[in-house]
Structure of Serine/threonine-protein phosphatase 5:
Amino acid sequence: MDANTNSDVQKAEDLKLKANEAFKANKFSQAIELYSQAIELNSSNAVYWANRAFAHTKLEEYGSAVQDATKAIEIDPRYSKGYYRRGAAYLAMGKFKEALKDFQQVKKICPNDPDATRKLKECEKAVQKIRFEEAISVGDAERRLVADSIDYHIIEVEPQYAGPRIDGEEITLDFVKAMLDEFKKQKCIHKRYAYQIVLKTLELLRSMPSLVDVDVPNGGHFTVCGDVHGQYYDLINIFELNGLPSEENPYLFNGDFVDRGSFSVEVILTLFAFKCLYPKAMYLARGNHESKSMNKIYGFEGEVRSKLGEKFVELFAEAFCWLPLAHVINKKVFVVHGGLFSVDGVKLSDIRSIDRFCEPPEEGLMCELLWSDPQPQPGRGPSKRGVALSFGGDVTKKFLEDNNLDLIVRSHEVKDEGYEIEHDGKLITVFSAPNYCDQMGNKGAFIRFTAPEMKPDIVTFSAVPHPDVKPMAYANNFLRMFQ
């Protein structure tokens, strides 16, 4: 309701101050709740809406951020922070042209603000770059696969190279262990071996369906991990806690291996190397960050270019297009990065038949698998991210019944405890990047299943120290400015 008493106005202001404190302490969900209470008491204050938009941005809820910032602008068309917050959310979504319009508006309102001028210039440069790339890009039909143009055998390894080597065609456990140690010391392996790992992985992924069935024998166990987002030292900690991948200790990493964290090259080469070593014990699913548009914004592309060179940018993009979209473990547990669908009646056979070798589309089954989120209320609602949708417990229940399944495991969202159980125990979110982006203070988690019961055993863990390289260190400068 609109504020109509001085008492409501004062209470709302007190709540805003509490929300600001929660925001400063990186308690963004709590800040959103407090700003929401302030808005209930006084919905005509543009500052509350713009502040809540900023908190939504911190939780990667860019769709909600755009809505709140738009409301702030409607209340006060001269409020520069409304345009600023909306522009930052559009930037994070990769909607550069919309962002540019908002920053132009900020500059118009604050012509002498050097910060507004600087950010407008960065945004203009980004839009020009994207327009140029679109102009020179070739259609999928004309594009020759980069993987087909590379023969790693002819790449010479210089005598002075002191790192681990692969003799012949087979990647060995000794090589992988030596590689992990090199990465811990912030050294890289020779490009020849990086090519060998990625090309071999790509070959394996191409032979897999879009929906993979995993069989765990009775008495055997299986571990599912969520997003690791370039946090290499936390990935190594998972292996120290739960054992290295092996035929007896299989893993599924459920997407978002890269971006945000600044050790994404080390993470992806580690996961790919284990895929080469144990094709039937290392399963990898695509996340929404295994895509060119996300990698361009959130650091992976810049990191690959810096550590391995330009050709690897395209090679990883090709490999990501072959990653499976979902897994079913022992015909009971459905594992997917994002979530469920905008329509009822989707069968596993529909997922199996998706032609996945493409960049993720902006709608349809593949988009929803990678981007959707659960919601507490029944039915379906708009996505807080601005992509795909939110789905309720009734949608989860129907999908499980239609496909004779027991449980959905998904990732895609940071959780304070590293996991969250929702929808009457039928859906678990697991997130494996503790203290996400060095600021969220969350735990990480993984889930162990033992056959035949396949009951989830959730293990949580805290972040471990890493070298002093900040998250998003390789991201485009224009986006780092808004973090």
